[in-house]
Amino acid sequence: MEFKVSDLEREPIDFDLELAPGAVDLGEQAEQQGPLGASGRAEVLHEHRGPREIVADIRLRGHFAGRFQVPCARCVEPVEIPLEADFDLIFRPSAADAEATERSITAQETEIGYYLGDGLLLEDVLREQALLSLPARTLCKPECKGLCPRCGADRNKQPCTCDVGPSDPRWEALAGLRGRIESKASSHKRH
Ligand SMILES: [Zn+2]
Ligand SMILES: [Zn+2]
To answer: Collapsing DSSP states into helix, strand and coil, what is residue 131?
Structure first.
């Protein structure tokens, strides 16, 4: 769905819609599962920057809710996460700040996005909002054993026969700890 400044200049647009699965393309990081609900209001805000300069910003307020699938950070099995968030965003025409680099940027202004041309795609906004809401690291379960760094086997499904070698620093630390407990050899970490 596109919000055009020319339409919004006439009147604000209220929206309440369901985006089909996959409508919001999150790239490699996540996949939209099922419909994504989005509702809210788009309107124009006029920024008066002097006697003759008026900048038409788009303000987009609303709420989205949907399910997304991301790979487990350890074993890459898909994990489903429900996401839901409110947003209240301001988009300025991309040309408006091009020549105003000397303008001081306040903390509030860093929240401002930009739109290209004459409008804004809701899908683009939702993509960004969904990516911002995704947890930085998702595990299928807290005790996920992950993939073997040697053979790639999913150790949640079956133990592999590889030695747990020092190829992964986490396992190395664990092996070092076990070594210190089992024997009193202190040279373990220096092989
Ligand atoms: Zn996992
Ligand atoms: Zn293995």
So the answer is: helix
